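Entry, Tuesday afternoon. Goal for today is a structural model of the target with adenosine monophosphate bound, before we commit to ordering more compound. Inputs were pasted exactly as handed over by J.K., no edits. I checked the ligand SMILES twice against the vendor sheet because last time a stereocentre got dropped in transcription.
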Amino acid sequence: MKVLVPVKRVVDYNVKVRVAADGSGVETQGVKMSMNPFDEIAVEEAVRLREKGAAKEVVVVTVGAQAAQDVLRTAMAMGADRAILVRTDDTLEPRAVANVLKAIATREEAGLICMGKQAIDDDMNATGQILAAKLGWPQGTFASAVTVADGRIEVAREIDGGTEVVSLTLPAVVTADLRLNEPRYASLPNIMKARKKPLETIEVDSLGVDTASRLTVVSVAEPAERKEGVKVNSAAELVEKLKTEAKVI
Amino acid sequence: MTALVLVEVENGAVRQASRSAVAAASRFGAVDAIVFGDGAQAAAALPGVTRVLSVPGLVNDLAEPAADLLAARAKDYSHIVAAASATGKNILPRLAGLLDVQPIPDVVEIKDADTFVRPIYAGNALATVRSADSIKVLTVRGSNFDPIATEGGSATVETVEAPASEKSVFVKVELSASDRPELESARVVISGGKGLKDATNFKLLEPIADKLNAAIGASRAAVDSGFAPNEMQVGQTGKIVAPELYIAVGLSGAIQHLAGMKDSRVIVAINTDPEAPIFKVADYGIVGDLFEVLPALEKAL
Ligand SMILES: Cc1cc2nc3c(=O)[nH]c(=O)nc-3n(C[C@H](O)[C@H](O)[C@H](O)COP(=O)(O)OP(=O)(O)OC[C@H]3O[C@@H](n4cnc5c(N)ncnc54)[C@H](O)[C@@H]3O)c2cc1C
Ligand SMILES: Nc1ncnc2c1ncn2[C@@H]1O[C@H](COP(=O)(O)O)[C@@H](O)[C@H]1O
């Protein structure tokens, strides 16, 4: 079975982004970029499936600008076998990304798509579900454990009240939650090796899929700042203030 | 225009987040509700709901049959809405995929029938977006819309057959039992972080939660360290809460945690480190050792 892992290059999770002065978006100039943390978890899971013998090959794919190559190299340093860059300078919405990924999954005859549950830039939490719908495959979202056996995949899912387990036929789409695994660090020798692994570039237009946007960004604004409050010296003083000043208890 | 709202019913009662979703959807016009499993009666009692589509055969909220069913009904509606809950986030984007529309997740404000505000970058920016799709598929943040009442309506109920699900089978569910209020609807939330050091100490939050009738939350670090189950995680990737009072104990206030609680009305932080970012959003802060402050707080309440 071939596992396809879509990964996205995003503003690093440690960066507190700033809204651009003209309200068109956020400042990304000179900001540290990394692989979306959930996608690292997805790559790790796919590599583990191959190490366990449940998968034969791990192919990573990103839809983005030339610079997004770096996250593909990182994924290969973590153990992915090869990479595909679907090149575009536009920012695509989940629906459009799903159209592109569907074309790649079909071409690659993927048996499993393992991806992040959410990109920490747009916070959409949608691409995996849209992709599964478009492929007509079942979905195991917000996965905290997966087991592949007998042509099926069992997925433990994080839900509001606890954990749920579903069993899906393959091929399927799984989206990774934080506790699925702890991704490995790429070692220096593996980073060197990853430079020699195959990286194919495809122009998005050559796929002939619909990548139009359905949402127009009218504006992007800073949320209201909270003002810093006061320090109190004791629990008793706190309770007093909560009762008489904040009137919340 | 009529909106269809996916209403979640738990133990015979409509979840508060779903009542917020109905409130949001009523901004668009008439509201129909769809309920999977039992619970059509509770949904029919919601004020403002005209018609309930009851799908008793769909007991486990599996996304595949649920999205198929919604897609088959979608043409009657201008908006399809759900709470931004685990269920809503599982099913609605799949529905959007079937309809070939771009979903609009985590709506915090409705400007008009096409224009919505949603947080991006863990809530560090708010994007106003206009949708060009003829059917809008959106999930809404409960904390941003006052829930409608539980009683007062009298909707008609239509029973709908559940589609078969061959590709996806429900195996089991483990729900953590708790008599505390739900995190997302509690008036008071007390959350613990890595500073509590272990699972036994995490229980120090309980007597205070008891006194305040509070829900208990946790940082990701606390969940990862096994102090608390995953469903207690508050933050960008956990629950989003906005209670009247949020008490943060021994947690630093990472961007991802703040994303889940910074809209609380009053925030209290207890932390030994005066530089901890949580103090930047706290209305009241105590710089001190939680192992001394918590017992004193319990006594003072
Ligand atoms: C993609 C992604 C998503 C994430 N999503 C979330 C999320 O949804 N929710 C979330 O919470 N995190 C999330 N995180 C993790 C987040 O970045 C932080 O790592 C996490 O919130 C830290 O938890 P903490 O504050 O408990 O631990 P720490 O940062 O270790 O803070 C512990 C605090 O306890 C204080 N302390 C220690 N001892 C005492 C004492 N005796 N008395 C008082 N104070 C004490 C310390 O001063 C310190 O400030 C996410 C991270 C990533 C990458
Ligand atoms: N441009 C992209 N290229 C590759 N994968 C993507 C892209 N955008 C989103 N994804 C995948 O879809 C997941 C969910 O993203 P989102 O729906 O945008 O929150 C991410 O974790 C990635 O695995």
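Chain B has a mean pLDDT of 96.
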